[in-house]
């Protein structure tokens, strides 16, 4: 079975917010998932969209352009894991500093062919 995998690591945004976007496209056709993401009103969709496009391109390059098209692919796995937290400081009361964290995450998207394609 032809599969395409793409992983985008150390992306800005929490894994919880990006995971909700991943749940929307899991199990859908790749072309319909891209169309859904294009009109989604969330700013963090860009990371998932870019990773999905890369996974589709990887699958097509693996099989050959004549044998596989974007319409034949299905999103089989979308995984969003937590990454490291960048620790930052902002001014606090009485000259002290207050810590806050910038969250990072890792996004992994896997697409596979709906029907068997001869390699």
User: What structural class is derived from the secondary structure elements?
Assistant: alpha+beta
Q: Could you spell the SSE succession in H and E letters?
A: EHHHEE
The profile of the biggest β sheet is: 3 strands, antiparallel
Number of helices: 3
Give the strand line-up of the largest sheet: 1-3-2
Mean pLDDT: 92
CATH class category label: Alpha Beta
Q: What share of the residues does DSSP label as strand, in percent?
A: 35-45%
Give the N-terminus to C-terminus distance in angstroms.
9 Å
Structure summary, number of beta strands: 3
CATH topology (fold) name = Ribosomal Protein L22, Chain A
Portion of residues within helices: 25-40%
Globally, the shape reads: elongated
Structural domain count: 1
Whole-angstrom Rg? 18 Å
The name of the CATH architecture is Alpha-Beta Complex
Question: What order do the helices and strands come in, and which of them pair?
Answer:
Layout: E1 3-12, H1 15-25, H2 30-38, H3 45-63, E2 73-91, E3 97-113
Antiparallel strand pairs: 1-3, 2-3
Helix pairs in contact: 2-3
């Amino acid at each position: 079975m032809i599969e395409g995998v793409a992983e985008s690591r150390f992306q800005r945004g929490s894994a919880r917010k990006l995971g909700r976007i991943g749940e929307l496209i899991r199990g859908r056709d790749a072309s319909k998932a891209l169309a859904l993401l294009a009109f989604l009103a969330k700013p963090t969709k860009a990371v998932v969209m870019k990773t999905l496009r890369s996974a589709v391109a990887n699958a097509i390059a693996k099989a050959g352009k004549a044998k596989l098209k974007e319409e034949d692919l299905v999103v089989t796995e979308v995984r969003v894991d937590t990454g490291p937290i960048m620790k930052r400081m902002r001014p606090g009361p009485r000259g002290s500093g207050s810590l806050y964290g910038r969250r990072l995450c890792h996004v992994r998207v896997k697409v596979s062919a709906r029907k068997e394609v001869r390699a």
